[in-house]
Write a structure and sequence with these properties.
Elements lengths: L3 E3 L5 E6 L4 E5 L4 H7 L17 E6 L2 E3 L15 E3 L3 E3 L3 E3 L15 E10 L4 E8 L12 E5 L5 E5 L9 E7 L5 H8 L6 E8 L11 E6 L3 H12 L7 E7 L8 H11 L2 E6 L9 E2 L2 H8 L7 E6 L1 H13 L7 E5 L15 E3 L1
Helix pairs in contact: 5-6
The protein binds flavin-adenine dinucleotide and FE2/S2 (inorganic) cluster.
The site of flavin-adenine dinucleotide has 29 residues, from strand 12, strand 13 and helix 2.
Length: 354
């Protein structure tokens, strides 16, 4: 239960970026809105607190969030991490972020992409392959995600599962959500040759090179961006040890198991699949995926850690690896939150709960 505070409304405050650029923000507008009005482009995508694209570190000053902040893990609700699409200033602020040289992908119109492949990888995962037109190619960094626009107006986020290809296609691993409008549509109605509208790419869950030992921890379809990163790095060979832990409730959910075993042998990395349902007929590592990491390492201070999957998994991994000495600034994550906020309750901007 939080503490309810009454705030003195500010008329306006000054927000200063790491580059020294400054702009004014009024109490009834988000920092992202105020930046846009001032002609300053800051990273953003969903504008509903769901994707994390607008996440920044606040170096000084106070703020509060109004509305759902699903993209913040429990550890990030620390008063220093802000989602600019939800954050309101309580006074002057300094943000550890630089403005973008051009509009963020969210400001650009959605582009068409043709469905060129629909392959059932497992009972609950569909590999959806999209081709972009030569006029609107998708220029992405491995690890990033895109938004697929649905007729209800909300974009659903899906991570790209491959490194850039010559033919411009991308694979997505779409996990079916029980009762999910969009993922249900993909499984039941989407057909090859259909056209989808795509926004993005978004996100900074990327890894340009492995210079320190790295541990990737993925849950379910959280393996998609990890696969893209591994594929992109494979050409340069890995300069430091790499460990890939992939957790699934059941063995049948390890839909890339054979591919990852072959990849690990070819490139000399460690691949550790972990199944959590102990009733499953599985003879490999059992339990939760982050627990397997803890069983294998007493000290994680030398590692870069990349975690991707459900918010619960990423939070558990974050807590566990920090307790084993991992550096906070060497932990990188992408949480697969629902893209469409379930209850997008708006807080009164005169009140804050802490
Ligand atoms: C940055 C990012 C990257 C993502 N990448 C992937 C990916 O590569 N593969 C993938 O399968 N998913 C991914 N997701 C999650 C995916 O976007 C959602 O599962 C999707 O939006 C569900 O849409 P839907 O219309 O089927 O569900 P909705 O109809 O919007 O929701 C139906 C119900 O299910 C709940 N729900 C929706 N999604 C989830 C979820 N992910 N977990 C738990 N409950 C949920 C909703 O709150 C609601 O109650 C990603 C999410 C983010 C934010
Ligand atoms: S743009 Fe703020 S969380 Fe997506």
């Amino acid at each position: 239960m939080g503490l309810k505070l009454s705030l003195r409304p500010i008329s306006s405050a000054t927000v200063t970026l790491a580059t020294g650029t400054a702009f004014e923000v009024a109490s009834d507008e988000t920092i992202l809105e105020a930046a846009g009005k001032a002609g300053i482009w800051l990273p953003s995508a969903c504008r509903t607190g769901a994707c994390g694209s607008c996440k920044v570190t606040v170096s000084s000053g106070d703020f509060f969030h109004a509305g759902s902040v699903a993209a913040l893990s429990a550890a990030e609700q620390d008063g220093c991490t802000a989602l600019l699409c939800r954050a309101h200033a309580l006074g002057d602020l300094q943000l550890d972020v630089a403005e973008l040289p051009e509009p963020p992908p969210s400001e650009r119109p959605a582009v068409p992409a043709r469905v060129v492949g629909l392959i059932r990888e497992s009972e609950h995962v569909m590999r959806l392959t999209l081709r972009f037109s030569a006029l609107d190619p998708l220029d992405f960094i491995p690890g990033q995600f895109i938004g697929l626009r649905h007729s209800d107006g909300f974009d659903r986020s899906f991570s790209i599962a491959n490194a850039p290809r010559v033919d411009g296609t991308v694979d997505l691993h779409v996990g079916r959500v029980a009762g999910g409008v969009f993922t249900g549509h993909v499984f039941e109605h989407l057909r090859v040759n259909d056209i989808l509208r795509v926004t993005g790419p978004f996100g900074n869950f990327t890894c340009a090179s492995v210079v320190r030992p790295a541990i990737f921890i993925a849950g379910g379809t959280g393996i998609a961006p990890v696969r893209a990163i591994l594929e992109s790095l494979a050409g340069d060979s890995f300069a430091a040890p790499v460990y890939v832990y992939w957790g699934s409730r059941t063995q049948s959910g390890l839909y890339l198991d054979r591919e990852l075993r072959e990849f690990s042998e070819r490139h000399g990395i460690a691949y550790i699949p972990v199944v959590s349902d102990r009733a499953d007929a599985w003879s490999g590592r059992a339990g939760l995926v982050h627990e397997a990491v803890l069983q294998d390492f007493d000290d994680l201070s030398a590692f870069d850690i990349y975690a991707c999957g459900s918010p619960a998994m990423v939070d558990a991994a974050h807590k566990a690896v920090l307790a084993r000495g991992a550096r906070r600034d060497r932990f990188f994550s992408d949480c697969f939150h629902p893209s469409r906020p379930a209850a997008d309750s708006q807080l009164n901007t005169r009140e804050v709960w802490s």
